[in-house]
Amino acid sequence: xxxxxxxxxxxxxxxxxxxxxxxxxxxxxxxxxxxxxxxxxxxxxxxxxxxxxxxxxxxxxxxxxxxxxxxxxxxxxxxxxxxxxxxxxxxxxxxxxxxxxxxxxxxxxxxxxxxxxxxxxxxxxxxxxxxxxxxxxxxxxxxxxxxxxxxxxxxxxxxxxxxxxxxxxxxxxxxxxxxxxxxxxxxxxxxxxxxxxxxxxxxxxxxxxxxxxxxxxxxxxxxxxxxxxxxxxxxxxxxxxxxxxxxxxxxxxxxxxxxxxxxxxxxxxxxxxxxxxxxxxxxxxxxxxxxxxxxxxxxxxxxxxxxxxxxxxxxxxxxxxxxxxxxxxxxxxxxxxxxxxxxxxxx
Length: 347
Fold this sequence. Notes:
Layout: H1 6-19, H2 21-33, H3 36-40, E1 45-46, H4 47-54, H5 58-70, E2 74-78, E3 81-84, H6 86-89, H7 100-106, H8 109-112, H9 118-124, H10 128-133, H11 137-141, H12 145-165, E4 177-181, H13 187-195, E5 200-205, H14 213-219, E6 226-230, E7 243-247, H15 255-268, E8 274-279, E9 281-282, H16 295-306, E10 311-312, H17 313-322, E11 325-332, E12 340-346
Parallel strand pairs: 4-5, 4-7, 5-6, 7-8, 9-10
Antiparallel strand pairs: 1-3, 2-3, 8-12, 11-12
Helix pairs in contact: 2-5, 4-5, 7-12, 12-13
Keywords: Methyltransferase, S-adenosyl-L-methionine, Transferase
GO molecular function: methyltransferase activity
InterPro entries: COMT-like, COMT_C, COMT_dimerisation, SAM-dependent_MTases_sf, WH-like_DNA-bd_sf, WH_DNA-bd_sf
């Protein structure tokens, strides 16, 4: 047999990486369940100390720790001594850019189990989550406050990268009041208001989704410039803002319901106002991507969890047209975020 070329070795490595991808995820899940990132902390720990904390024999736990090291989440600077890498430190709750709850939600059974129905979901167009759990995702959350809090925190943690970049990549200063539609805990809007002190703001969310928003606004010292309003964006959107920001909302819904949200945005918008749809904008042809989250995997996830989807520019133009809006520009945010700004005005 001829010796394999470097390209052939790389092809095998890539395929093996994805064949065993779910096993690597389970290593991460187990580490989170055992609270290992918090136990390692800033200074690291010996496996014997970790073992006592986890109530697992040191020899057995060492196997898990070495697997974590092989994934780049920790290092083993000396035998049996472990420390978090920069990536592993992102799992700690106190890290300013923490992705701990994001990891917990997206590796939990509630997010993972419906993927077993991917083929069925593709064939029928039905939402895999609904079929697996017998109800839509947001209804499932209704009587689970702890899960809802983790989900809200996960969405906030994902929003952090956009909250860092968005305020400097659009001319917010020409507007008077910005309303964040489906604004969650207010992370994105408070970042915009802090960068643009002439603006006033409103977080508009469901009562459940806005549960932490007032706290975020207060912690940012913006109580005098920012309020929280609750309601259902399928019924109406409050008037009074000349700029509406809609981030990571439209992709949650099929075209009919997405158009209904945008139609309500149009009705609330003054003639000179604008809507900013902040979402993934898929290229017209698939290619390897530099974003933190592969947009095509994310597209399938929207199908799996909530019957939504990611869209191309032409998809957004068609969708906005159905809602009485016209796309005026698409402004990419830095590539690592995976997001773009789709600007629209009343048609």
